[in-house]
Amino acid sequence: MARTISYREAINEALAQEMERDPRVIVMGEDNAGGAGSPGEDDAWGGVLGVTKGLYHRFPGRVLDTPISESAFIGAAIGAATRGMRPVAELMFIDFMGVCFDQIFNQAAKFRYMFGGRAITPVTVRTMYGAGLRAAAQHSQSLYPIFTHIPGLKVVLPSSPYEAKGLMIQSIRDDDPVIFCEHKMLYDTVGEVPEESYAIPFGEAGIVREGGDVTVVAFGRMVGMAEQAAGQLAGDGIECEVIDPRTTSPLDTETILESVESTGRLVVVDEATPRCNMATDVCALVAQEAFGALRAPVQMVTAPHAPVPFSDALEDLYIPDPQRIANAVKSVAGWKR
Amino acid sequence: MSEIDEITLLDAYRMMRTIRAFEERVHEEFATGEIPGFVHLYAGEEASATGVCMHLDARDTIASTHRGHGHCIAKGVDVKAMMAEIYGRGTGSCRGKGGSMHIADLTKGMLGANGIVGGGPPLICGTALAAKHEGAGGVGVAFFGDGASNQGTTLESLNLASVWNLPAVFVAENNGYAEATSSSWSVACDNIADRAAAFGMPGVIVDGFDFFAVHEAAGEAISRARRGGGPTLIEVKLTRYFGHFEGDQQTYRAGEVAHARENLDCLLRFRTRVTERDLLTDKQLDAVDVEVDALIDAAVAEAKRAPRPAPGDLATDVYVTY
Amino acid sequence: MTVRGLAVPKWGLSMTTGRILAWLVSEGAEVEEGTELAEIDTDKINGVLESPWPGVVRRIVAPVGATVPVGAVIAVIAPAGAAEEEVERVAAEARERLAAGVVPEESGAVFGTVEVEGRQICYATLGEGPEVIVLVHGYGGDKDSWLFVQEPLARRHTVHAIDLPGHGGSGKRVEDFESLTGAVAGFLDAIGAPPAHLVGHSLGGAVVAAVAAARPDRVRSLTLVAPAGFGTEIDAGYVRAFAAASSRRELKPQLGKLFADPGQVTGRLVDDLLRYKRLDGVAEALKTVSESMLDGDRQAIDVTALHAGLAVPTVVMWGGSDRILPYGGAGRPPGVRLVDGAGHMVHMEAPAAVVAAVEESVEAADST
């Protein structure tokens, strides 16, 4: 039976159910228990925002606190994966990829290819991304396009509690390295989630809303923004088809192209900065594969080409919002040659 | 050292001799232009890989460096498949997709030569963690060079291995040069092993030209790790006979190689010691030489004949499923 | 002279709003109970709202295109003689509430689970009448598939819709056909229901027929909607493809075969089924159930003889355009009522006919 739980609880439940099912699953990261070696509580934090809370006592010896040394413990998760474990390592903020990227993109991502198909590296790296928490330039980025660029990695962007649980379970069961990107502003959002375990396959987009006028492809937190925009636009008689690709690698190109073939209009909403991001990628795809169907120029709604600012006065402008999305949709819906 | 039995001694000699012959031959063949890309040769350092890996079995894993052929051979990777890989053939250890710098065989616990200096130590924290979870006494050994001893990844891994009390051994092969830069300049302390104290683990310095010294030090570290006694840092001081990579004119070196070949050859030292003490005979050792030379001849001949990867292999093996 | 507001019914668990696609009557139209009033899009499937009462459509409050919450009043129905003032008062209140987004408390279904043979059986109960009706879905379906039927039946009866093992929210372990019939019989025992009227669709039809044969003391009547187990003809390709489908692209064309008009399959219906199919254990359960249903390309389940020996009143109905279990197949029972224009999902495509058939079964049981 489904019940309403938060995005945070959905991820925690996925971890717990997979740890219950498979003794090879271990969890590690900075303060994933929280309190290692301290005189107080030994499960003090459960991750900096509480996602892994409670697992430490439920699964003794399988939730590991780490020193703040991302290269070592992300690399350790990768090494353990080559030996048959199913580690879930937390890279607390995606911004910290800079201090461990080699282990992810030169090691984990390439083992299978470099070793001629004779390696599997079933590691999951959970990481928090996105703006909105007034966390400023080094704790707020949407760097998933960089991971998406790397062959050998799979990149997951759950947009809701239902997606978060099913995609996390798939990430753990998947035999390839997965970068699981959690938007920090979504942790407290709630939705219906089955109690049972379930895996959402990678590379299959969700069609969040059907509509025949404009295709809106949105990623991660932007899915909800696009849905809000689509709700407003329906009142103006513009029906949006909102597509949530769920994973940027693999990318469900078929669903996007099929939709654009029928609407002839495309808006892509991506919180990442605009050079070489998912918006440019989807627009290039459509320009190449569905040029004949286009009835208006494509539109991209993204952050500006700038670091994430601190002041709320600026950060609120930085993040794409329903109004900007609605304006973009209107501009393509009303476009005349 | 007297406890090492005859069979083990012969195996050790065969392993070192195989590495030497492999590398000398790759050096010759590379000069003909038939081998593509970069190769970094391990000749001169054989006692290190051999002295350590003689203690390892199927439970154990190693991570290596871009100078990885010796580690591969010592951990049991098939020599013919290695040679084919270096030639970029479809029959290679990695089907021609990895090359010299990425030879691996996970079924043998060999996590790959590694093109990234300092790439291996974090991985070994992970294999050691997996071994600890498995509880069968397995250990992970990270080989790295003096160059990697200055990398953050290595220092982080030393700390993590100590904090997690992992069954890991860190083997710093200090051959005096990171590329063309002397370790006496680039390593800020006198010995890499001195750094062990900073991570709360034993640090040991060994003579890398002496198989028996390496074997003894590694044996102690590995059995401590197997018993749950935590990690060790071993610094093996040695010399490479060739340049950083093939084609390196080595103008930064001044006659050291000739001196080393003459006076610091681990194979010659081994032979002298075991024959002087009547542990093995020259005849036994010569027979191994002949056997090894034949194997390397066959490996090169087969590699040259082997098919190259097919165009259809270009984008396969990127994912298990996609 | 009752003036009544016509509310958007809750057709199934997931329905929170409905969008008015079309009004099939105009203000002033005289309607009977069961007259089709409006087409409403529930996201899951487009349904037709039928008049619960006879009278005159005095006001249409919600226009075509409006999305309104479940329970909101969208029209006013009253006898021709009812006072205009009173009609306007009800209509005005409805308009006000729609504008304000105020939704009255809905008398929703009560959900429960019982344990039968070591597995959880989920059910939803609506209504409080003395007669007990149990709705049993078909292969791959769930209690929610009765969305258009449970609510109207619940006006007079206690109506339970259950999830068979391997389906919906019930335990996913299934061994064979007998584990399905055992679950239904066990459910009746577990809730301590008086003898009940069983309604089964497709595979559920075969299940309830078998339950009636095994436990005649528990059953007052049967309503079989396009039941399996009568004759051998079946679209085996559908059965296998449904079990195998794991993506929208694979599943949607299969679902289209269920309806006379494949256009009735909405994205929401496909998504809900995908959500179900992704649950751990469902793939295995569907494989087991599909294998128990098929013998090569023909039906393996045969309840003809069991049913022939029964004394309980039975109504059998079939969609004239059924492509899964085509009515014309050999061995279909006699006396079937054909529903023109319906495919395999008669209870979704022509719910009024199914409601009428169930009521008829209930009456027949009362008169025996």
Automatic annotation (TrEMBL), chain A:
GO terms for molecular function: magnesium ion binding; oxidoreductase activity. Residues 5-189 form the Transketolase-like pyrimidine-binding domain. Keywords: Oxidoreductase. The keyword Transcription regulation does not apply. The keyword Cytoplasm does not apply. Pfam families: Transket_pyr, Transketolase_C. It comes from the Bacteria. NCBIfam families: PRK09212.1. This is Acetoin catabolism protein AcoB. It comes from Planobispora siamensis. The lineage of its organism: Bacteria, Bacillati, Actinomycetota, Actinomycetes, Streptosporangiales.
UniProtKB/TrEMBL annotation, chain B:
The keyword Oxidoreductase applies. Its cofactor is thiamine diphosphate. Residues 15-311 form the Dehydrogenase E1 component domain. One of its GO terms (molecular function) is magnesium ion binding. Keywords: Oxidoreductase, Thiamine pyrophosphate. The keyword Oxidoreductase applies. This is Dehydrogenase E1 component.
UniProtKB/TrEMBL annotation, chain C:
Gene3D superfamilies: 2.40.50.100, alpha/beta hydrolase. One of its GO terms (cellular component) is membrane. It comes from the Bacteria. GO terms for molecular function: catalytic activity. InterPro entries: AB_hydrolase_1 (IPR000073), AB_hydrolase_fold (IPR029058), AB_hydrolase_sf (IPR050266), Biotin_lipoyl (IPR000089), Single_hybrid_motif (IPR011053). Residues 3-78 form the Lipoyl-binding domain. This is Acetoin dehydrogenase dihydrolipoyllysine-residue acetyltransferase subunit. The gene is acoC2.
